[in-house]
Specification:
Order of helices and strands: HHH
Helix content: over 70%
Structural class: mainly alpha
Number of strands: 0
Number of helices: 3
């Protein structure tokens, strides 16, 4: 009889159930929240890298070359080599 009363008492006892539910739900909730924040940072970094590549490629296409006299310097060097008897076809 005593065992039956104890069994019923434990089945109907709800004290501590909030603690158990919180222990189960809180880690899952925090994982979702911080996972969403981390994914947002990842997407932001991806967008910044994508924009930087776009701007770099655009700048490379529309700007002047870095060395302004690259053609004349190369021509002068090739002319010097021709004077030494080395044909242009070796380097072009």
């Amino acid at each position: 009889m005593m065992r039956h009363k104890l069994h019923n008492k434990l089945l109907h006892d709800i004290s501590g159930s909030v603690l158990v539910e919180t222990t189960i739900v809180l880690p899952i909730f925090l994982l979702l929240v911080f996972g969403t924040i981390d994914a947002t940072y990842m997407l932001y970094d991806w967008a910044v890298a994508n924009k930087a590549a776009y701007v770099g490629a655009r700048l490379a296409v529309v700007s002047n070359p870095v060395a302004q006299n690259i053609t004349s310097s190369t021509s002068t060097t090739l002319a010097d080599l021709e004077r030494q008897g080395i044909p242009k076809s070796v380097f072009l």
